[in-house]
Amino acid sequence: MIEYLYLLATALIGTSIGFIQSKYFVTYGYTGSIVLLGLANLIIFRHNLTIYTTILSILVILHGLRLGSFIFIRNKNSSTYRRQIDEDDEKRKANFMMSLTLWVSCALIYSFEVIPISYRLKNENKDDICALIGIIITAMGLIMESLADSQKYNFKKRSPNRFCDTGLFTVVRFPNYLGEILIWFGLFISGMTIYQGILQWAGATFGFLAIGSTMYFAAVSLEKRQNQNYGDNKEYQEYIHKTPILIPFLPIYSFSK
């Protein structure tokens, strides 16, 4: 039990940057927390590490570093995006009690996202096929999200007033969100053979459902914003009626209706 409290404390440290600006709870607080949580697993459970758990922890760390760097570069170089974020932040300015609630809830969610690795290490389980499958899915998600972020960033530099419909965005409208879901789905899958008891199953399931629902609501919000910006564009209407919103080949084209 003490190990999990260490992980929660680690996430609380990572998310504490949100007290500077509330938006940081879900941006730099998120990326910083998962980097620290990945490192914490490697340190706290160092005597139980296996090849697969080491790889999973490294993938989590790489994801946090990559996403945090991307957010910083995007915010620094994109005046349009920075203005939108500032407007959103102005709408949700938090008082101290709200910030405290956000701090604790975000830290809990982030620690539960990473906890499948902790369970495998705590239970002293050997590497198995589920861990390998989890590594593959997580790596695929990391690659997909990285490519999608890069493609959209470069596209917006060339055409700031047009919706992105190239590269991975021809497959689904929000491939970066799909990549994020795959990263944590891979971690959840990696522990399916080793969860012990209902509490471990509940913890791992909560972590994945939390990030899954977060990505769903993020997609809803972005879809509404794009509809406002491009709703009168004929090419945009054609694009959204032929390209699934989040899941490839699944004919779901809208979440906001």
TrEMBL record:
Transmembrane segments: 25-45, 51-73, 94-117, 129-148, 177-195, 201-220
InterPro entries from the UniProt entry: UstE-like
Taxonomic superkingdom: Eukaryota
Any one cellular-component term (Gene Ontology): membrane
Keywords: Membrane, Transmembrane, Transmembrane helix
Matches recorded under PANTHER family: 3-OXO-5-ALPHA-STEROID 4-DEHYDROGENASE, 3-OXO-5-ALPHA-STEROID 4-DEHYDROGENASE (DUF1295)
Protein name per UniProt: DUF1295-domain-containing protein
Species name: Anaeromyces robustus
